[in-house]
Amino acid sequence: MEKSKLIWMNGEFVNWEDATVSVMSHTLHYGTGVFEGIRARECPKGTSIFRLNDHVDRLYNSAKAYNMNIPYDKEVITQAIKDSVHLNNLTSAYIRPLVFFGEGEMGLLPSDVPVCVSISAWSWGAYLGDEAGNNGVKVCISKWKRISPESFIPTAKGVGGYMNSTLAKIDAVKKGFDDAIMLSDTGSIAEGSGQNIFAYKDNILLTPPVATGALGGITRKTVVEIANLLDIECIEKDINVEALMSSDEIFFTGTATEVIGIVSIDGADIGNGVVGDLTTQIRNKYLEIVNGRDDNFKDYITLV
Question: DSSP secondary structure string, 188-247?
Answer without folding.
Answer: SEEEESSSEEEEEETTEEEE--GGGT----HHHHHHHHHHHHTT-EEEE----HHHHHT-
